[in-house]
Amino acid sequence: MPRHHHSGNALQFSDITVRRGGSTLLDHLTFGAPVGSRIGLVGANGAGKSTLLKVAVGLARATSGTVSWAGSAAAETRAVAFVPQGKPLYPALTPAHALVLARSLNTEDWDEEAARSWMDAFEIPLSRQCSVLSGGERTQVAIALALGRGTPHLVLDEPFAELDPLARADAIDLLRAVLDSTGRTLLISSHLLSDIDDLCDHLMVLSRGRLTLAGTRDEILAEHPGQSVSETAMAAMRLHARSGERTAS
Ligand SMILES: Nc1ncnc2c1ncn2[C@@H]1O[C@H](COP(=O)(O)OP(=O)(O)OP(=O)(O)O)[C@@H](O)[C@H]1O
C-alpha cells in the first residue's frame, strides 16, 4: 500500500505518525498523489481525519514523518488554502469586510473574482455581520475566501456538513468546475461517501489512525470487483473499528 510519487509534482505523506498524550492518532501513514489530484478522505468519528489535514497544512506537527506539497514542506508552503472544520470567521466583520481583509493579507495572488463569484452563486448577504450568518452561509464565506487565495492546492475539512441538499449539490458542481478550470489539487474530508464519489479521483480511508484503503478510484474499483467505491470504503472504515484494540503506545 505505501505509495511514493515524484516529490516535485506530488502531494506526499511519508511515514506520518502523530502521538498525543499517550495515544497514537496517526500510525505510519504513507500516501502520495500527483498534484492536481482530487483526494477524498473518509473515516469514522475520531479516525484521525482532522489531525491528518492539520498536519497536511502545517497547523499541527507530526511526531515523525514528513508531508510535502510538490517538494515544499507543509509548514513552509503558502501554496495551500485550508478551510478547517469550524469555519472560523471574525464575528464582527461582514463578508464584504472579510473580502477586504483577505485581499490585504494576500496581496500577491488574491483572486477577487473567484471569491466573489462563489459568494454570489449562493446569494451571501455581503453586508450582514458574520456572527448572525447561518451555518450554511458561514460555510460559503469560508470556501469563497479560500478560493480567493488562488493557491494551487485546496484542503477542506468536512466543508459541506452544514449545507442543505440543494446547496451541497450546487457546491459540488461549482467546486468541480473550479477544479476543472484551475487544475488545483483538492484534499477533502467528508462523512458523505457520495460527495467523495462525485468529486474525487483518489481515496484515503482512515480507521483508528491507520490507512486501511488508499489509491485511485480506478484501482479501487478494479481491486474490488462488483462493489461500488462507497461499499469498499465502508468495509475499509470497519477494519480496526470497535474491535477493542485501539492503538495506544
Ligand atoms: N491533542 C490531542 N490529544 C489527545 N487526543 C487527541 C488530540 N487531538 C485529537 N485527539 C484524538 O484523536 C482522535 C482523532 O481526532 P480527529 O479530530 O483527527 O478525528 P476525525 O477523524 O476528524 O473525527 P470526526 O469525524 O469526528 O471529525 C480523536 O479520538 C481525538 O479525540
From TrEMBL:
<feature type="domain" description="ABC transporter">
    <location>
        <begin position="11"/>
        <end position="233"/>
    </location>
</feature>
<dbReference type="GO" id="GO:0016887">
    <property type="term" value="F:ATP hydrolysis activity"/>
</dbReference>
<dbReference type="GO" id="GO:0005524">
    <property type="term" value="F:ATP binding"/>
</dbReference>
<keyword id="KW-0067">ATP-binding</keyword>
<protein>
    <recommendedName>
        <fullName>ABC transporter domain-containing protein</fullName>
    </recommendedName>
</protein>
<dbReference type="InterPro" id="IPR027417">
    <property type="entry name" value="P-loop_NTPase"/>
</dbReference>
<dbReference type="InterPro" id="IPR003439">
    <property type="entry name" value="ABC_transporter-like_ATP-bd"/>
</dbReference>
<dbReference type="Pfam" id="PF00005">
    <property type="entry name" value="ABC_tran"/>
</dbReference>
<dbReference type="InterPro" id="IPR003593">
    <property type="entry name" value="AAA+_ATPase"/>
</dbReference>
<keyword id="KW-0547">Nucleotide-binding</keyword>
